[in-house]
């Protein structure tokens, strides 16, 4: 409370000492004094408080569900609180996981381009642009080894491609469960039927030629040059698929498409070599039948990819069966 008191007013006077006229003759000294009457005043006190009358009243807020019983923002009064060891470890784990995800992301991004480039460089470029004359030197062992080495180069590129595809399908962190995928039993059965059919037809052709069922007879070295690399790569494909089924790798659906696409090119190369070798007409027709067979199998494999994508999408919508059980 503060008070302001006005002091009493005093007598005010004003004195004019002298008035001088322009006429020097009538110059008389005079003094005039004007006196103002004293005005009586009362002592007035002005009381001031912290809140003026024109300010709005203070607004108070109340919580509907006050579980703190009037204790708002209760806690430690220290300005800087120390973190516990559990909180520090959890923060470090989150930071480490984030760094691992970023590192894996940086490593996997080039794989999306490196994998197809490796497959193209090892498989398609030598088969399409390498002249036949540099590979085929005649019906001898050297030509057979040259063709086998060319297919082995493709097999190395296909293996690298499948490894990169398997790495891209893995989870980002080590804590997550690996993405295991087991092919259905029906898929494995029909895939083995297609592969064994690709084995049986060339051996039937060789057996008929040796027994005189097909004339003229096809020499063994010519048969090895035409269909030897084909049979070797078919055996490698079968072994690769069985290993993927055993490891439950998600790449089991991609491997047949990779190998069967190259097999069509391999058989087309065999048709060109058949003209160089002077192979019988029945041999050329048999190889054309093999080309048609593997084109048909390749089309079925591509349709299986579309079926599997739709099947897994339906499982995710239902949410009743996991992908591993499917």
UniProtKB/TrEMBL annotation:
The chain crosses the membrane at residues 109-132, 144-168, 189-208, 220-239, 290-310. Keywords: Membrane, Transmembrane, Transmembrane helix. The keyword Transmembrane helix applies. This is Cytochrome P450 family protein. It comes from Deinandra increscens subsp. villosa.
């Amino acid at each position: 409370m503060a008070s302001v008191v006005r002091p009493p007013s005093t007598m005010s006077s004003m004195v004019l000492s002298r008035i001088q006229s322009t006429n020097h003759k009538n110059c008389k000294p005079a003094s005039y004094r004007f006196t103002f009457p004293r005005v009586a005043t009362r002592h007035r006190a002005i009381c001031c408080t912290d809140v003026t009358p024109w300010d709005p009243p203070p607004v108070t807020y109340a919580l509907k569900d006050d579980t703190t019983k009037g204790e708002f923002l209760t806690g430690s009064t220290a300005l800087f609180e120390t973190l516990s060891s559990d909180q520090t470890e959890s923060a470090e784990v989150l930071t480490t996981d984030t760094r691992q995800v970023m590192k894996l992301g940086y490593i996997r991004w080039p794989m999306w381009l490196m994998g197809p480039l490796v497959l193209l460089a090892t498989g398609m470029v030598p088969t399409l642009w390498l002249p036949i004359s540099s590979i085929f030197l005649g019906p001898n062992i050297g030509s057979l080894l040259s063709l086998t080495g060319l297919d082995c180069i493709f097999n190395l590129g296909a293996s690298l491609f499948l490894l990169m595809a398997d790495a891209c399908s893995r989870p980002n962190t080590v804590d997550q469960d690996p993405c295991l995928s087991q092919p259905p039993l029906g898929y494995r059965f029909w895939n083995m039927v297609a592969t064994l059919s690709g084995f049986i037809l060339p051996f039937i052709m060789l057996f008929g030629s040796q027994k005189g069922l097909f004339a003229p007879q096809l020499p063994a070295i010519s048969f090895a040059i035409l269909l030897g690399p084909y049979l070797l790569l078919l055996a490698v494909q079968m072994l690769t698929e069985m290993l993927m089924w055993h490891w439950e790798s998600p790449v089991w659906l991609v491997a047949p498409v990779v190998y069967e696409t190259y097999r069509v090119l391999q058989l087309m190369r065999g048709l060109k070599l058949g003209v160089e070798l002077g192979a019988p007409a029945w041999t050329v027709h048999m190889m054309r039948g093999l080309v048609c067979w593997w084109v048909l199998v390749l089309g079925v494999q591509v349709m299986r990819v579309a079926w599997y994508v739709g099947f897994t999408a339906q499982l995710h919508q239902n949410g009743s069966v996991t992908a591993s059980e499917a």
